[in-house]
Amino acid sequence: MKVTITKKDVAKRTARIVNEKIYLTERIVDGVFTALREFMEEANPEIRIEIRDFGVFEVKTTKPKPKARNPKTGEIIYVPARRKTHFKAGKLLKEVLKQPLPDEKTDSEK
Q1: Is the pLDDT of residue 8 over 70?
Q2: Contact indicator for 50, 89 with CB cutoff of 8 Å
Q3: Is the distance from CB of 40 to CB of 59 less than 8 angstroms?
Q4: What percent of the chain has pLDDT over 90?
Q5: 44-100 has which CATH code?
Q6: Cα(101)–Cα(110) distance, rounded to whole angstroms?
Q7: Among 81, 55, 86, 52, which Cα is nearest to 68's?
Q8: Quick one: which of 53, 83, 97, 98 is 20 to 30 A from 90 by CA?
């Protein structure tokens, strides 16, 4: 089951970690996300935001596709170049995510 974590959840966890009031950390967390979004919006055309021990956010430019095909109609269309976002996990985060998941019981063990 997929769990959704909201910005408010991030602010609550941050408040607990830094031992601060939630209403203060909500403003700070909101400010951080706003700043990251503004950096990415202003990318002209590409940008790299590196957060040590977490990962790298990038805005990259795609290549135009002059002979793409609409799968429904088969019509050949032109797809212009655009920007897209990319996230690459940092070394510490990768190491944690590489850990095997806890084994689920097999049918014979149930």
Answers
A1: yes
A2: no
A3: yes
A4: 68
A5: 4.10.520.10
A6: 19
A7: 81
A8: 83
Token digits of residue 27: 């403003």
Using only C-alpha atoms, what is the Rg of the chain?
21
- Under a CB-based contact definition with an 8 Å cutoff, are residues 37 and 55 in contact? no
Q: Starting from the edge strand earliest in sequence, which strands make up the sheet with 83-89, in order?
A: 47-51, 55-61, 83-89
- Could you tell me which residues come within 8 angstroms of residue 93 by beta carbon, excluding any fewer than 6 positions away? 53, 54, 55
Average pLDDT over residues 30-57: 93
Copy the structure tokens of residue 83.
Answer: 């920007």
Q: Amino acid identity, residue 45? A: P
CA distance linking residue 54 with residue 35, whole number of Å:
17
pTM here? 0.73
Task: Give the other-Cβ count within 10 Å of 61's Cβ.
Answer: 12
What are the b/e assignments for 70-109, b being 16+ CB within 10 Å? eeeeeeeeeeeeebeeeeeeeeeeeeeeeeeeeeeeeeee
